[in-house]
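Our collaborator T.R. sent over the components below with a one-line note: 'Predict the complex.' Nothing else. No constraints on interfaces, no templates requested, no preferences about which chain binds where. So this is a plain run: every listed entity goes in together, and whatever single assembly comes back becomes the starting point for the next discussion.
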Amino acid sequence: MSNQDFLRRLPSASQGLRRRDRIQQRLHLDFVLILLLTIVTIYGLIVLYSANGQSVTGIQRQGIYFIVAYVAMFAVAQVPVHVLRRIAPWAYAGGAVLLVLVLWIGVGAKGAQRWLSFGGFRFQPSEFMKLAVPIAIAAYFGQRLLPPRLKHVCVALVLTAVPAVLIARQPDLGTALLVTSAGLMVLFFSGLPWRYVGVAFGTLLVSIWPMWQFVLHDYQKRRILTLLDPESDRLGAGWNIIQSKTAIGSGGTSGKGWLEGTQSQLDFLPEGHTDFIIAVLAEEFGLLGVLFLLTLYGLIIARCMAIALKSQDSFSRLLAASLTVTFFVYVFVNVGMVSGLLPVVGVPLPLVSQGGTAVVTLMTGFGILMAIATERRRVTRHI
Amino acid sequence: MSESHRFKDHHREERIFFVRMVVAGVIMALAMALLIGRYYSLQVISHQDYATRSDRNRVHVQPVPPTRGLISDRNGELLAGNRPIYILSVIPERISNLDETLKRLKPLVRITPSDLEKFYDQLQQPRKPFAAVPLRYQLNETEIARLAVNEFQLEGVEVEAQLVRYYPQHELFAHSIGYVGRISQSDLARFAEDDLRRYSGTHSIGKNGLEAQYERELLGEVGNQNVETNARGRVLRVLGRVDPKPGKDLELHMDLNLQRTAAQAMEGRRGAVVALDVETGGVLAAVSLPSFNPNLFVTGISFADFRALNQSLDLPLYNRFLQGQYPPGSTLKSIIGLAGLHHDVVDTEHWVRDPGFYRLPNSSRLYRDWRRTGHGPRVDMMQAMVESCDVYYYDLGHRMGVDLMHSFGIRFGLGNLTKIDLPSERRGIWPSREWKRGARGAAWFPGDNLNMAIGQGYTLTTPLQLAVSTATLANRGKRMRPQVVRSVGGVERPPIVDEYVEIDDKHWDFMLKAMENVVHGQRGTARSMRVGAEYRMGGKTGTSQVVAIPQGEEYDSEALQERHRDHALFVGYAPADNPKIAVVVIVENGESGGGVAAPIARKLFDAYLNQQYAQPLPHEEPMAGFLGGRP
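Returned assembly:
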């Protein structure tokens, strides 16, 4: 995978297509990104059809989620970046209040409390915070001298930690991880001195023991132990990992064929339509299918990095970079955990796993990226 | 911040950002490479391994259920054990046509409609793929042989041996030990995160009594084994095994012989008997009659059996000693008398005239003594105790008032949970002014004091509470917490002192002497029980009025008539000089505390102190008063 090559070719490509450029600008859209996203979406629906027991209604429902998500993306792309920056503190504060409400009056299942319910409508504030946190921190740094001073670093850390802790209390470790990553990425790209990065990693290493002793729940510890030795808990947490590794490994290079995966079709694989869907893909389409998906993800990330590099004020730059890397974290954590590289946390495979909320949040993020991409050009032209 | 300053930084910012972008890009590229490497290793290098696992020889993880802990009495007699039975079960995933398979099974084994009903019920519930669904329990040897012969045409049908709970004493301990039953949807809903794993090999769970209270300890830790199966699901070999840890054994304070003696002494009547070890609070016997056979519940009770138990007017499923709430009647007079002495409301010389009734000052209402003609012109507390004189106690209740009686009775455990190690205990009612205002919305009337003093009115106690208060009397104020289980997995549970009622020794001496006279005095209400006893005992009789009768159309009036009679009560302890055992007997509709309840207590005393136990009845004939068939 070579992101670097792709980056170098991009500027010349966009210079060559001035007419398409103008249309994109007027519509506030990025055709390359839309094309890549659409391919992933369709690929995902094909896998999902097999994973959810060939249920047509399931696909229809997911299709509707995608339509809503694309509409959200197009709508958000029209919002000027400076508006986004102005509403950032309010969006953040509102989101934080909703998170507190979730802990009070939230609803949920399986011992976790994640949703707010208004009448028939359900809303997951933690999803909203995946966007609100990087926007708020980017807006905060956008008005200040970079690289940031220690005081500003501390403020950014607090802005990240508050929602992350609230979400972890629900408990929803996966989302807390993504929100933390989104906030920290803004810090990283703002030019946080390397020594701070070093200190942070050092602290992380040192805090492993106290975290293990005092913070993690028993079931979380078991997940980590299971990662080291899945055979130790074959009936509990180990079951998922053993079955998903068997599904992936038995797929081989070219897979068992669509709808032919025995692991997935005979229900050996738990959560095959949600968090563990890449195991279904790997079983039925093999390593080639996995490579195809990862390549698409890589191209999407490269395109987003290009947008970040070309944007000219620090708010847009930091926000675009953070959203991009968060998307990557999504991919890496999910693909890693299903194959037994990382402990199992609840992170879906972006744009493929069944579920509406995550898709809408992701697409809204891409909408923001498009807003940034097209705004840049308008600024250049006016100057 | 000046504009020029900010402009100067702009390029630096861009440069820093570019460097960070490059670093991030490199890290992401490396991470992607790591993922690809991982999938390459799984899908290309180890492909053969995983393909084998997934294809022809599927490796299954089977849970190996732990053996449930045993329950035995204080002498090591087994009260709850496990026995192997053979179960016919079906693996739906391996069967193409379920109806066809069932049709083939019909001539080989007997399958009742109730078996089928339970089977389809199970089939609806969520379960792991390839998990067997039981169709029939307790196959006999002929059936096992017939199934073995026809195995080739019965794909997806399995016969497996399983250990199930067995209660060798049948009805005798149904209300204290309780029973296990199939794990139901409502049990599943209560499961914690880890419980699905803990119960992955186990089919039953404690529903009631000790089985429920000590579920955690009895269950044990599940083991597992990796088995290699062929395409038809037959196990070829066991690859690896983690042994289960058996559950912890419980040893009880209860005594099988004493329990049997108590149950037989009741001679088929309804009621409850509780016997406590005075020194430790250990529960020696606890009987609630009529009882039922807990073995019926173990593999799932049939609808007809359950209806018979549940709709019986005798309420066999109802735990009378733990949840039955009865007016304690005159058995409460020793505590009320002690309260009067302790608070200096009366002394032992104080007397009242008993014309057969009592009248409150400025009131015309008569409160009658149980003896129409009264107990005489000068009744003191000793006589009032021995003959159970109500008028004396009306007077005492009037003098003392509810507040003193309430605060004193609380210390003997009245109106509170005894905290016994059994679930679903009831707390009874020990009334106070606040209680009446809250529960009845009315003020406390002077007449309420009189009823309270003779254990009627609002007061309700469970037989267990009466046993605890009697043991506290016998123990001179040291209230021990009642405990059924003596040790868990060999670890003793220490006795617990819940309260120490400190009262002048002379008051204790007087009241214990009075209770002794109830049995041994010339005019004692329980004098009939002392015949032939070579040791002395103390006690108090009582009768309590029946409050409400369950109405049922199909019962004849004579039976209903019988159910309107007073309950007979006796509380007591023995030997009087050094009490070892405290006993409570309640015979529903037994009418006479001294005539009916007290002799039953005597049999327990004889059994416990002199080892004069009742012999087990022949097992072919269920005891009178017991319901439920045998397995």
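Summary for T.R.: Chain B has 23 helices and 23 strands.
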